[in-house]
Amino acid sequence: MNPDVLVAVFLTVITASTPLLLAALGELVTERAGVLNLGVEGMMLMGAVVGFAVTLTTGQWGLGVLAAALAGAGLALVFGVLTLTLVANQVATGLALTIFGIGVSSLIGAGFVGKPLPPLPRLAVPGLSDLPVVGRLLFGQDLLVYLSLVMTGVVAFVLNRTRIGLVLRAVGQSDVSAHAIGYPVIRIRYGAVLFGGVMSGLAGAYLSLAYTPLWVQEMTAGRGWIALAIVVFAAWRPGRALVGAYLFGGITILQLYAQGAGWLPVPSQIFSMLPYLATILVLVIISAGPWRRRLDAPACLGKPFRPAA
Asked: What is the mean pLDDT of residues 199-215?
């Protein structure tokens, strides 16, 4: 294959994988604290529409990205109040959050449909960006691509090498025990939920500002659900989440390439189903047989907690 074509394919895989990685990292931390938030799709949509609207109206990329993060955090805060303070069912609340996000984002974005926006600027590194092949791949990406990679390392380090990470994992494994020895379980879980909201908002911002720099209703197209599946695929480990995000991103690009190349005389809708079929297949495989024993789900995941008076 021509090197230029190969680089273009890899660049496309990176753009397809970055929003999945950002959202998966946020949900991974949330679930490590024992909270199951199924509202990732809704938070991504809110981040996408708010980030696009602020960037288009102000012309400032930084403000747009920040606004997207705050929008995701705002929706996550609603989820936190309902599930952590009012002890509502986490699964039902997460599903409601997704439906709410779809509706509100469509309302906010009604006036922005079809308006183009220049893509998020790439951070070229002088001298290194001009290197053949690796230059464009490693030294010519935008801020959110680099942020997703950096955050993978940061999340892995914090969870596995710091006291904060140890406490957060303890809360996810046994909230009653953590509370008994004096840790503020609810506050820690609020922090994890808000972090998940920020990362989902950034994932949405990447979709509307870099991946396809325009606003389209429900433009996440199920990526929030794929991010949830990646967390399980990764067995709640950040490094594996990175691999999973790029694997599913690669499958997404593969189906687009297969449609364009006309590999098989099958309807295009079949190829469009590939990322979601792969998600289901992976979940079935890792949930059965010897793979299941390797899963390390937090023991208190999705369980309500009300501190004793």
From this structure: 95
> Considering all CA atoms of the chain, what is the largest pairwise distance in Å, rounded to the nearest integer?
67
The separation between the first and the last C-alpha atoms of the chain, rounded to the nearest angstrom, is 67
In the predicted model, what is the mean pLDDT of residues 128-152? 85
Domains identified in the chain and CATH numbers: 3-294 (1.10.3470)
State pLDDT tens for residues 234-253: 989 999 999 999 988 888 77
Question: Considering the entire predicted model, what is its pTM?
Answer: 0.92
Question: What pLDDT does 66 receive?
Answer: 97
Q: What is the mean pLDDT of the chain?
A: 89
Residues 186 and 5: their CA atoms lie apart, in Å, by 50
Reported confidence tier of residue 15, pLDDT bands at 50, 70, 90: very high
- pLDDT more than 90, % of the chain: 65
Q: Collect all residues with Cβ–Cβ distance below 8 Å to 45 and sequence separation of at least 6.
A: 101, 102, 105, 204, 218, 219, 220
